[in-house]
Amino acid sequence: MDTMLRVRVDKTTLEKLDDSAKELNTSRSEVIRKGIHKVHDDLKK
Length: 45
Fold this sequence. Notes:
Layout: H1 11-24, H2 28-43
Helix pairs in contact: 1-2
């Protein structure tokens, strides 16, 4: 089962999120998921 999260972001962060989603031709949610995985993977290095 998926969990829905609500987060607050400032205008600059939202613009970066939207730019990334547009460039990758994907959803905001997918960009956020990829970011979480990247941070988690970097912690293991």
